[in-house]
Amino acid sequence: MEEPAKTGRFGKALERLRNAEKRPYLTIREQLRLLDDGPARPRAAPHLSSMPLPEGTEERNGAGAHYVVRKSYPDDHFHGKVRLNRSEAPDFQRLLELARNRRGPVERERIAFLDTETTGVSGGAGMCPFLVGIGYFRDDAFHLEQRFMRDFDEEASMLAALGESLQAFDVLVTYNGQTFDAPIVENRCVLARLDSPFAHMAHFDLLFMARRLWRAGHGSCKLTALERELLNYVRGPDIPGAMIPRAYFDYLRSSDAVSLRSVFTHHAADILSLAALTIHAADRVVDEPQPLDDALDLYSLGRIFDQAREDARGARCYEMALAGGVPMPEQARAMERLSVLYRKRGDVVRSMELCGRLMNMDEFSAAGYEGAAMLEEHHERNLDAACAVVRDAMRRLEGRPGAERTVARLNARLDRLERKQQKELFAAAGK
Q1: CA 74 from chain center: how many Å?
Q2: How many helices, marked H, and strands, marked E, lie in the chain?
Q3: Chain centre to alpha carbon of residue 93
Q4: pLDDT tens digits, residue range 59-72?
Q5: Which backbone phi and psi does 226 adopt, to 5 degrees?
Q6: Relative to the CA of 313, which of 36, 83, 282, 412 has its CA 20 to 30 Å away?
Q7: Strand 202-205 relative to strand 171-174: parallel, antiparallel, unpaired?
Q8: What local confidence, expressed as pLDDT, does residue 19 receive?
């Protein structure tokens, strides 16, 4: 007998979710079996638990009950070196613009910082977010809500309450949330026949901007690495992320929250670091760069302004990066972009100086040679010199593997320059 066709938006969403599964995943039962390294133990009654959950309350809604922990941090609270309450909406708006997030004006109180902790053994619909938290500003304080399912039958209640809470916000801020947190929550909402809690929100994933700002200078862009290096925040004793699923399954088997309490602490630190790092990133793009800033960070900031077509600020950052001793190959890239920016501004002398430095480097710079040829042709009106520049570039590339496309482009330029020379010769002979 054929399975009846699914109807309605939830049926269609569920079908899409199932079709999207490209690899096998473990069910919750299989995850429990995988993590259980000993004989099955009966779950203890809650009143016998040796360590309770962090202080919180039980909340109920139409889907059941779940557990909520709430905290507030006053306006003078520092997370590392960042005071959370100094966040300003215009600064955040500026960060969104440079991140190419097309959104209108944003109010600080309408921003939610979200992070999840999951069963995390495998991908797919079998992975559950058992702890979902949001941080937000209200009045002069930063507030934190951590919603927790004490067993799998509380998932729908937790997700429904999350959706209700997020109705008060317009912008969602996460760290790697576009590929991890948000899809997992939305998948579980589909299975629970709930609407996506993020459908009405703009999503800003800070990870992508963090990579643009700091990967060149700091390497790892893990949240824990950046909070230590940029925020001067040290967590101290902390549960490793890989151990968090085991801590949850241990709690399910025993009702003992001895390990789970550290998960709540870890999760709260993640959300606070997300908010503080967002503030720090906004400062980075709003405040004027300083000569003592890391040269690679200045180069990265220059690229962000350059790509946003803010030529003056991009050029300033590139120049400061060069003065600060930015290493290769970023030094060459900075000079290449500066030569273009100065040429656009009509500063022929500085642009030609940069092209000359690029042409004298051991590493071949096509941008340096092509920039010099353009300056000789269009500004100096010296076709002979332009042709000489192109021929020198082709000589350096002769026999070099992988340079075919560059050679073809230079050949085309040389042909055009030589035709232009011939036209000028004919024109001069006809006078």
Answers
A1: 28
A2: 16, 9
A3: 16
A4: 999 999 999 999 99
A5: -70, -35
A6: 83
A7: parallel
A8: 55
